[in-house]
Amino acid sequence: MKIAVVGTGYVGLVTGTCFSEMGVHVTCVDVDSNKIDTLKSGSIPIYEPGLETLVRKNIKSGRLLFTTRLEDVVNDVDIVFSAVGTPPDEDGSADLKYVLEVAHTIGKHLNRYIVVVTKSTVPVGTARKVKAVIQEELDKRGCNIEFDVASNPEFLKEGNAVKDFMSPDRVVVGVESERARKIMARLYKPFMIVSDRLIFTDIPSAEMIKYAANSMLATRISFMNDIANLCELVGADVNMVRKGIGSDTRIGKKFLYAGCGYGGSCFPKDVKALIKTAADNGYPMRVLQAVEEVNADQKLVLYRKLVKHYGSENELKGKAIAMWGLAFKPETDDMREAPALVLIDKLLGAGATVKVYDPVAMDECRRRLGEAVTYATDMYDAATDADALILVTEWKELRMPNVETLLLKMKGRLILDGRNILDGEELQQAGFEYHCIGK
C-alpha cells in the first residue's frame, strides 16, 4: 500500500514514519526544502523520543521517502493525508489556508481515485470544504474523476507519540462511502491485530471528536486548578482532594493534577477553535470560556506567589530568579503557549533577571527569546546565586534535587513548585521556604 503525508511537522512526521514501520510505502511531502533535505539525511526537526531512530531505519529500508512535490506522487498513492498546520487566527478560529492549498494541488493534478484524509485538527465542516475545492479544480480541467474525503483526527501526546500511534487506544475515521471505509480499514489493520479499536463515524462527528476530547481534558485541568486555588484559601490539600475524587470510577485519576496552567500546540488552540465554531453557529460555549479564562489566570499564579513573598512588584527589581523547565510539558521541546513564557515576560517586565534550564528546550527558548534570559548549563547552574527558584515543568531529573547543593548554590531560600513534584517537607526542614499549588 502506498500513501503520501503532506506536512512534516509533529503530526505528519510521526504519522508517516509509523505507517512506514508497519510496511506501508510512505512519501512525506513538505514545501520547506531545507526541512526535506534534513529529513533525507536522517535527522528530524523536532524532539520526540524514539522518532529519529525509526526515521533512519525506514529511510534505509526504502519505505520512507521525502519530497517537496505533491504533484509527483499524488497519482501513485492510494491515500493522501493532509497533516499541515492549522494555526489559530486572531479570532481563535483555525486557519485553513494550508489545508485548502493541499486540496487545490490535489485537484489540479489528480488523475485516478484516491482517498484524501484530513489528519490535522480541523473544525467541523472542513472535509466538506476540502471536497469542494478538489471538485472545483477537477471541473476546471473538465475531469470526471472519483475521489473520497475522510477525517482521521490524531490523538498523539507529545513525548509519547510513537507509542500512542503504534498502540492506539482508539482510531477514529469519518467516511462517506464504503469504498473509503474499506481502504482505511486495510491501512489500519496492522494496528488492530491484538484488539480492534477502529471506530468509523460520519465525517462531521470525527471532526468534532478531536476538539471535544481535548476540550474535556483542558476542562479537567482548569477545574482542578480552580479547586487548588480554593484549597489554599480554606486550608485543604489539593493532592488529597485529587486522590479522593480520582478514586471515583465515574471520574477517574487522569488529568486531575493541579499546576501552573496548560500550554502546548493542542489544548489552547482547540479550546479557542471550538468556542469560535460554537459562536459561528450562534451558541456560547460557556463552560469552555471559563476553562480558557481559568487557564490564562493560572499561568500567573507563580508570579503572584512571588510578589506576595516580596511584598510588591517593585521589590522584584534586581532579583535573580532561577527557572527549572521551559517546555509546556516533559519529553518535548515545544514551548507553544507554555506557562514559562508568560512567567518570564512578567519577571523581566518587573526588572528581575532570569536564568533558565530545561533538558531539551533551551534552543527553542533561545530562538524565541534570544538573550533576554541567561541559559544555564544544568539545573544547579541555574540556581547559582538565585534569590528564588521556580519549577515550571515536571521533568523527571528535577524531581529529586540535592538539597545540600541547593543550599550552597542559592543566595535566597524561596522555592516555588508549579507542578507539586518536589518534597516540600524535606526542603522546609533544610531551611527553604517552599510553596506549591493548592496546599
Key features of this structure:
single chain, alpha/beta, Rossmann fold, six-stranded parallel sheet, 17 helices, elongated
CATH structural class of the largest domain = Alpha Beta
Strand content: 5-15%
Which architecture name of the largest domain does CATH use? 3-Layer(aba) Sandwich
- Tell me the number of strands: 14
How many separate helices? 17
In CATH, the topology of the largest domain is named: Rossmann fold
What class do helices, strands and sheet pairing give?
Answer: alpha/beta
Write the CATH homologous superfamily of the largest domain: NAD(P)-binding Rossmann-like Domain
What is the residue-averaged pLDDT? 96
The biggest beta sheet reads:
6 strands, parallel
Helix amount, in percent?
40-55%
- Gyration radius over CA: 24 Å
Summed up, the domain count is 3
Provide the spatial order of strands within the biggest beta sheet: 3-2-1-4-5-6
Distance between the termini: 55 Å
Low-confidence stretches: none
Tertiary shape: elongated
Protein model, in words:
- It is a single chain.
- By secondary structure, this protein is of the alpha/beta class.
- The chain has three domains: 2-201, Rossmann fold, CATH 3.40.50; 211-297, NAD(P)-binding Rossmann-like Domain (Rossmann fold), CATH 3.40.50.720; 299-435, NAD(P)-binding Rossmann-like Domain (Rossmann fold).
- Helix content is 44%, strand content 13%.
- It is built from 17 helices and 14 strands.
- It has helices at residues 10-21, 33-40, 51-61, 97-109, 126-141, 161-166, 178-188, 203-234, 238-246, 267-280, 286-298, 301-310, 339-349, 362-369, 379-383, 403-409, 424-429, and strands at residues 2-6, 25-29, 64-67, 79-82, 115-118, 148-151, 171-174, 198-201, 320-324, 353-357, 374-375, 388-391, 414-417, 433-435.
- The strands form three sheets. A six-stranded parallel sheet has the order 3-2-1-4-5-6, sandwiched between helices. It has a six-stranded parallel sheet with strand order 11-10-9-12-13-14. A two-stranded parallel sheet has the order 7-8.
- α4 links the parallel β4 (79-82) and β5.
- α4 packs parallel to α5 (126-141), α8 packs across α10 and α8 (203-234) crosses α11.
- The protein starts with a strand and ends with a strand.
- The mean pLDDT is 96.
